[in-house]
Amino acid sequence: MWLVSLVVLLVSAVAAPAVAAPEGAADATTPPGRSAVWSASLQGVRGTSPDLTVRNIARSSVAASSLRVRVGNPYGDRPATFRSATIGLQLRVGEADLVPGSLRTLTFEGRRQVTVPPGGHAYSDPVPLRVAAQRNLAISLYAPNAPVNDHSFPPPTPNPPASFLSLDGDHTRDTGDAAFPEEDRGLSAEPGYHPGQLWWVEVVDGRTAAAGTIVALGDSNTTGHAATGGGDRWTDLLARRINALPPGRQLAVANAGISGNTVSRQTNPYDPTGHCCGPPAPDRLDRDALDLAGVRHLVLLEGTNDLGGGEFAPPAPASRVIDAMREIVRRAHARGVRVVGATLMPMCNAAGGAKEANRLAVNDFVRTGGLFDGVVDFDAAVRDPADPTRIRAAYRSDCYHPNAAGHAAMAEAVDLALFGLGGTGLRDDRRGDRPAA
């Protein structure tokens, strides 16, 4: 865990900042007709922000205008004051420059500053900026001395999610890259380029011709850990498939994956402190999925970390994973959101052993248990026919994670009819028969 120095704040001469509502308060600020076009789930707190600017890089899954940004402080133990915030279009992949004329100031209830309480978030006012599908956005935030709520650990790639940390000071209005070194600094708070690392920014939504949003709720196999190359996560590739449809038939895609996350409520197998891997999926379901603008469908791919266990938690039984899935589906249905269940991919567990038996039991339930509105069979898409306890070699990065080719196979395994985008579509009545998956 890296440490970040405290800074002494100067007294601001601008008007008092807006104060955001705490997490769980009714959000009356979401206008109708908007959809989340991108998201990244924050997972923990990593120290305190120095006196620098973070330029977060996101990618819009569909074309959108009138953009809003949600910034969050879900895990902070004190308020986070954002003293300046802007959004623009990234000029070139892997660089911090902005497209000339694209910079927009973000305001919050008309103010340039906003204070977000512990556990809360704030939406910016909409800005007149249009972004094309698969185009990168740069969201620059200046919040010295704020608790750093971060997202980290996707694949090392020049494409988003990523960020640039600046030299000292407020550089939110810089359109060039002079204050943003481009040396790869990995997971740290050093000025430079940080693949897979974001601070505070959670969601971008906007007005779009799309008919809503698909949210992918998952763990490292949704964040894209070990997928190499630019934007090669299965969710990115799924968005590109959907982009080929006419605009009125498209859906936006939002990625709510957190590496190391569990689907059931338990001590995290990898980090009992809560700084690594986010809260269990049921505890972050509303914030990271159901509360997003325009959400219509949820794809649930979680359970691998529960079943695998780790240093701080033993392997979970299949029943615990299934019970968590039941809760998620029940709550999603209560909000009018349909849920597609995904089977769990091979984990190199010995055939006949307890871990593999539990994985097979979960997958059998996903396929035949009647809980989900549809099923995508990632297990069948990537497993080795000669050894179904392993991902096939051409698709495997390691025992738990597919590589870029594996993510491509996962994206192709998703039937667009599951979202009403072709073929037979979803069943019209949850009491009736489900479509073939």
Brief characterization of the structure:
With 437 residues, this protein is α+β, with helices and mostly antiparallel strands. 17% of the residues lie in helices and 26% in strands. The chain has helices spanning 220-223, 234-243, 281-290, 304-308, 318-334, 354-368, 378-382, 404-413; strands at residues 18-19, 34-39, 44-48, 52-59, 65-73, 80-82, 84-89, 104-105, 114-116, 120-123, 136-142, 147-151, 162-168, 192-195, 198-199, 201-207, 213-218, 252-257, 295-301, 338-342, 374-376, 383-384, 387-391.
Provide a descriptive summary of the structure in words.
- With 437 residues, the chain is α+β, with helices and mostly antiparallel strands.
- It has two domains: 42-204; 209-419, Rossmann fold (3-Layer(aba) Sandwich).
- It has eight helices and 23 strands.
- Helix 6 (354-368) links the parallel strand 20 and strand 21.
- It is globular, with a radius of gyration of 21 Å.
- Residues 1-16 and 423-437 have low confidence and may be disordered.
Keywords:
437 residues; 5-stranded parallel sheet; disordered N terminus; 26% strand; single chain; 6-stranded antiparallel sheet; 2 domains; alpha+beta; disordered C terminus; 8 helices; Rossmann fold
